[in-house]
Specification:
Strand content: 15-25%
Radius of gyration: 19 Å
Number of helices: 9
Shape: globular
Structural class: alpha/beta
Order of helices and strands: HEHEHEHEHEEHEHHEEH
Helix content: 40-55%
Number of strands: 9
């Protein structure tokens, strides 16, 4: 194939950006490199693939190792927060920096297999703004995840299901496909793990369509989880209160507008 034919082939492919937030992930990065290399071979057959790695203010050698492993490869772009802002903030940084309309986020420890994006991405059809990987779906799977983490996430998802319009099995997964234009103007108040649920909550309340795809979640092998149980429970309860307040205001506003128009 000539250089011109090769360039035409890339142009014919749909652009796809994968975001990988990283915070103190030095031990994980060689495994991430190998996993992404394999995923590139699969996804690159169909998509014009770009990968953005965001160092979220790491205090270990994460930034240096990212540069050593990825900087020389043209498909990769490295971004860095000067201080730790949280995983949702890192994902938003990546979404704003992306140059494609389809953007995916994965965990740096690959507890969700990036190869499964092959199933998620085609579900971002017209009218859908977000596809979330769902290990709690009846066809999903969870392996070797600590009971406390699994319990917290499942309870949180069941509570969000009571509050939001769209009844999903999983609201807290970072394994997602986004329509970039639908996310850019969202006003998120939570920068950390809570922002993952807040993003779906606010999309739901503004009428966006969110769908889920069964996925497999595996326990973390390298590094340590950044989740904190007590803080996580309190945070989800606070966010649920905020979303309930937003939904109540939505119910009130149409009646108020209708009443005003009748008086005039």
């Amino acid at each position: 194939m000539s250089g011109r034919d090769s360039a035409r082939g890339v142009q014919d492919k749909t652009g796809l950006t994968i975001l990988v937030p990283c915070f103190n992930e030095e031990p994980v990065l060689p495994f991430l490199r190998d996993t992404l290399s394999n995923a590139k071979q699969l996804l690159g057959k169909t998509y014009d693939l770009h990968i953005i790695l965001i160092d979220d203010g790491s205090t270990d050698r994460t930034w240096l190792v990212l540069q050593e492993l990825f900087q020389a490869q043209q498909e990769y772009r490295l971004l860095r927060h000067p201080s730790n802002l949280g995983i949702a903030a890192a994902i938003l940084t990546g979404i704003r920096a992306a140059e494609t309309e389809i953007v995916c986020s994965i965990d740096s420890d690959c507890t969700y297999d990036p190869h499964e994006l092959e199933k998620l991405v085609p579900m971002l059809t017209a009218g859908v703004d977000l596809v979330t990987g769902s290990p709690y779906h009846p066809l999903g799977k969870v392996e070797d995840v600590p009971p406390w983490r699994l319990g917290l996430s499942k309870v949180a998802s069941s509570l969000y299901r009571l509050v939001l319009h769209q009844k999903l099995y999983t609201y807290t997964s970072c394994f997602r496909v986004y329509r970039r234009s639908a996310i850019l103007n969202l006003d998120l108040r939570q920068n950390g793990f809570l922002g993952i649920a807040e993003l779906i909550g606010k999309l739901d309340l503004q009428g966006s369509n969110v769908v889920e795809c069964p996925a497999r979640l595996e326990g973390r092998v390298l590094g340590a989880s950044k989740m904190k149980v007590v803080r996580g429970i309190a945070g989800h309860l606070y966010l649920l209160g905020q979303l309930i307040g937003m939904r109540r205001r939505q119910r009130f506003l149409p009646a108020q507008v209708s009443s005003t128009s009748e008086i005039s």
